[in-house]
């Protein structure tokens, strides 16, 4: 029978490695596993006991990303309040996932570059393209509700608003890395700008 305390310790160590990998790879997708192990507070050998190679670690990050996105959508309570309020809550929740979604932006752009330019050719700079597959029925329902309650411009379809949301978030994450503004100020400006961009015409 497994020791519950040992299992909990293993789970914490595994999570620490994943968290460290997300933070480092968001800044540098080529960050070596040794640096990730150091950031997680474990040795390289320990890291390999949990993840045999880089591919296994990246696969675990993908699973972690899906989980965190689902949790963010749940916390945003997209079925409550006006449509605009729901989208602003979602924006705030996604803002808190900065490292994770910055990494997803970069991975998607890298895939697109490879498919368009080939593995030996240089593609455009990373950023600017939203992660694939993040639109949900709940998001679309919130947009429709906003069209009906007047809080969202009915001339703005859900697919367009999704791109607007990612564009605002990408700008916000860029500003947080520059250090000229506090995270609070960046979030305040992001929500104010998004609110103005989606508002129903008066």
Show unreliable segments.
111-129
Question: Residue-averaged pLDDT, rounded?
Answer: 84
CATH architecture of the largest domain: Orthogonal Bundle
CATH topology of the largest domain: Tetracycline Repressor, domain 2
- Helical content, roughly? over 70%
What's the story with the biggest beta sheet?
Answer: none
CATH C-level category of the largest domain: Mainly Alpha
How large is the radius of gyration? Answer: 19 Å
> How far apart are the first and last residues' alpha carbons, in Å?
66 Å
The tally of strands reads: 0
Strand-residue fraction? under 5%
Number of helices: 9
Classification by helices and strands: mainly alpha
Shape: elongated
Number of domains: 2
Question: Which sequence of SSEs, written as H and E, runs from N to C?
Answer: HHHHHHHHH
């Amino acid at each position: 029978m497994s020791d519950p305390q040992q299992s909990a310790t293993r789970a914490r160590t595994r999570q620490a490695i994943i968290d460290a990998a997300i933070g480092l790879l968001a800044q540098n997708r080529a960050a070596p596993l040794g640096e990730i192990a150091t950031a997680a507070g474990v040795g390289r050998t320990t890291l390999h006991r949990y993840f045999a190679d880089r591919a296994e670690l990246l696969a675990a990050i993908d699973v972690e990303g899906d989980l965190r996105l689902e949790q963010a959508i749940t916390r945003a309570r997209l079925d409550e309040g006006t449509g605009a309020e729901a989208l602003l809550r979602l924006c705030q929740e996604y803002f808190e996932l900065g490292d994770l979604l910055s990494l997803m932006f970069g991975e998607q752009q890298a895939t697109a570059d490879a498919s368009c330019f080939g593995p030996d050719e240089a593609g455009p700079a990373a950023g600017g393209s939203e992660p694939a597959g993040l639109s949900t029925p709940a998001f679309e329902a919130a947009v429709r509700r906003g069209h009906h309650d007047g809080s969202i411009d009915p001339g703005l379809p859900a697919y367009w608003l999704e791109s607007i949301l990612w564009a605002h978030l990408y700008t916000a994450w860029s500003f947080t890395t520059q250090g000229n503004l506090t995270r609070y100020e960046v979030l305040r400006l992001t929500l104010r700008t998004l609110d103005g961009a989606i508002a129903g015409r008066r």
